[in-house]
Amino acid sequence: MKFRTYVEPPEPMKGLEVPPEVVEALGGGKRPPVIITVNGHTWRSRVAVMRGRCLLGLSKANRLAAGVGPGEEVEVDLELDTEPRVVTEPEDFSRALDADPAARAAYDRLPQGRKRQHVLAVDGAKKPETRARRIESALASLRDEADR
């Protein structure tokens, strides 16, 4: 589905407003997972509902990749994302999880977004010692969660 909207300033969760009739026509509920394309740049997200408005978050990275800025009118191509959301664990993080059954069980119960947070924290480390520290921190957090 295509529609036109304005790029809103990025503070506190503005981005691209989606007309309610577009969200309804997608048929995925009030907060459907979607594939968004703006100026040939595509990313996956979910429609958010804030103060009665349907919004698509638009990160700085996605604004730059799409070549758009605040205040600009853009054409948005939106489609329902029916592919399963899968987070790929880095090998070292996966081995550490497999070696810790409580952490693995807690991790496997997490929603995809929380799994992605752990993976991004590990992958964002530049030094091996930072990566190892972040893996241990994730395991400790997951063990705590398993104890609850």
TrEMBL record:
One matching Pfam family: OmdA
InterPro entries: AF2212/PG0164-like_sf (IPR037079), DUF1905 (IPR015018)
Classification via SUPFAM superfamilies: AF2212/PG0164-like
Protein name listed in UniProt: YdeI/OmpD-associated family protein
Species this protein is from: Streptomyces durmitorensis
